[in-house]
Amino acid sequence: MHVDVGNALAVEASPGVPEDALERLDDRVRDAHEHIVAGMTREEFGYAALNLPKTADPAAIERAVEPFADSEVLLNVGIGGSALGAATLVDALGGDLDAHFLDNVDPEHVTALLEDIDLSQTVVHVVSRSGTTAETLANFLVVRDAMEQAGVDWTERTFVTTGPEGNLRDLADEHDLPALDAPEGVPGRFSALSTVGLPAAALAGHDVEAILAGAREGRAALTGSLFDCPAYAYGATAYALDVRGAGINAMMPYAESLETFAEWFAQLWAESLGKDGLGQTPARALGATDQHSQLQLYRAGPRDKLVTLVRAREREDRGIPDTELEGLDYLAGGSLGDLLDAEFEATEASLAESGVPSVRVEIPRIDERSLGRLLYDFEAACVLAGELYGVETFTQPAVEWGKDAARGLLSGERGLPEKTELVVE
Amino acid sequence: MHVDVGNALAVEASPGVPEDALERLDDRVRDAHEHIVAGMTREEFGYAALNLPKTADPAAIERAVEPFADSEVLLNVGIGGSALGAATLVDALGGDLDAHFLDNVDPEHVTALLEDIDLSQTVVHVVSRSGTTAETLANFLVVRDAMEQAGVDWTERTFVTTGPEGNLRDLADEHDLPALDAPEGVPGRFSALSTVGLPAAALAGHDVEAILAGAREGRAALTGSLFDCPAYAYGATAYALDVRGAGINAMMPYAESLETFAEWFAQLWAESLGKDGLGQTPARALGATDQHSQLQLYRAGPRDKLVTLVRAREREDRGIPDTELEGLDYLAGGSLGDLLDAEFEATEASLAESGVPSVRVEIPRIDERSLGRLLYDFEAACVLAGELYGVETFTQPAVEWGKDAARGLLSGERGLPEKTELVVE
């Protein structure tokens, strides 16, 4: 992974990081790296995620999906980290599999989807570490019922990834479903490179071993200096900008197939770092499209943003046909890729011109190896940032209140506190 | 439209708006409203958008799309405001039309899309007010060429919406294509309820007149007080929270079909208000999914956010089947809609519990009339907010630099300023 933080330096941007401040920060990066390595060595909760490139078992994943290899449709039933890693890989890498991620409980959406797909050609992957996630279990019950109604034996078309206990484990045991173990010590948002995220990629025909090989490259590249390690360069720079006022991180890949990557990043960054009143707010964007939507604000709005520009250096290109239309000669002989690259570089320069910090991230191309590296490096960047903020990177305590309240409402056991109303209609 | 700003008041939230501050702000709302009405009366640039419910001509739109009524696929070629309004309507309202919005210049995406659809069954709507937008023209040239290669007469399957001059107008004249006039005085991001956004809805079989009727309701509801006008209640509260520190507006609809609405809102809000160092940064979210992604940050991160919760009060529901699984009795006899509503209310309460301001927006259901009202009211909210900030709501000067630079790069006429590099790889 290639990371260029030049446009985030104080000589270019405000807020920006003085180069000597980055050098001082590097002492903290060295200490943080030692702490991270110690956590990895002891397979501590969370840090264990950074060992997945070594501990994940691609053969077990291949075995689990093998019975479903001829499926035309994948229904991944899981929410949050149990959806986004898989969706990121499948959306980026493409393939013929018609993959759907049932990660919401919108009845109209669920009904439309179930009416649209051929359930007899569908493999269902139910993913919940706890085995008790309300949305996931509710959706699974609906899917199972729809299969029964359609005369499809759901037990022949379902496999699960879950922890050692819970409803899903019981279900797998009872019906002899293929069951993958959710990796120990790995929070959902760090589980793309495991039995949580990789089965979808395998079903779509992608090389799981190559994804992990890319991730291993990232692991081997972890060193004690942000000047030698692209993951840490990114994490440290984002942190240093946030504490200088760039509280928003606009993640803007220049590739439609990486749009889901921006969502995955948004979860990783928000849920890991958003605590104790700290944390940078991710904003998902897409180049070049959002130049016609968000760029005005990024350039001329409040100075509270870092813009992260991501692209692949190689791709399948497509020429722009010659035209009789006047004034379009600048497009002549060019390609859509040329146009996209020109917009990438012009946007980067336009942010610099107005003093808005940006970081450029490049990968060689969008393939298994590069994706594995990209996801691993951003996970490592996030873990480093968590160390620098001094937060508990791997927990998400603030979501529990709402979960309990929703459960209380549904069971009728308790209501909500009285709400202050000021209604206008 | 029902707007409840109770949870944005200072008695509930920090930042929050003291109720007497809202009352004082209402004087400014009254003045702003007078200014808005004057602009509407004179059909001034931008303000003219708020007259679209009266000035749009649904019959002309129906006539333009009528020759293409049997098309199975819509390819909407346009970017930014020339895509998002149409996409918002079609994604929300559904229908059998297979609609695609070519709003990026990613060659791999364009190629995959063109290989995937039956061009002989496709209607192409090319949308550019100026008629010269680089991305749109490049994509159109590619689409036209693909149709020719496939033996499809593109002149029989294409219509345009554009201004009085430019490449697209010339093209329509030369090839006798049906051509709709882009509305005068209406910036792209305010053009959903016009010849820009409505043709896609018409092609998908929706009642354009009902959409406009909903918008007319919104227009009739514009009054000089935020306490009487839901659009102004929203715009004034968002503004009042921003100036008190809530620089981020997380737009979180609880309906998959409104996900694109959040994108439309993000453009409207960012490009209209993001200037002079001012403007609230929109963050697109989706309920209930993002409870498992962004909620941790919203509740426990920096106190810089307003969360806007949007839902429809009625929908087609789907029961959750009974289950033998233990511990799920709280779901028994319920529906996915019950679960979604419980999550909506629990999330709203959980934000209040941690003192994070939120606003609740409800529409009766997701249909033509309600959508027209929703879009109109958010446009009016944005125009009001622009008055309160004192910015030029209807321009986007900060994007020109990058457009010129990209054009210079492509034509080879000029390069970019030298870039500061600090590369780690």
TrEMBL record, chains A, B:
Alphabetized SUPFAM superfamilies for the sequence: SIS domain (SSF53697)
Superkingdom assignment: Archaea
Compartments where located: Cytoplasm
Annotated pathway: Carbohydrate biosynthesis; gluconeogenesis; Carbohydrate degradation; glycolysis; D-glyceraldehyde 3-phosphate and glycerone phosphate from D-glucose: step 2/4
Family: Belongs to the GPI family.
Listed name of the protein: Probable glucose-6-phosphate isomerase
Gene this protein is translated from: pgi
Record-linked Gene3D superfamilies: Glucose-6-phosphate isomerase like protein, domain 1 (3.40.50.10490)
GO molecular function, one term: monosaccharide binding
GO cellular component, one term: cytosol
One Pfam match: PGI
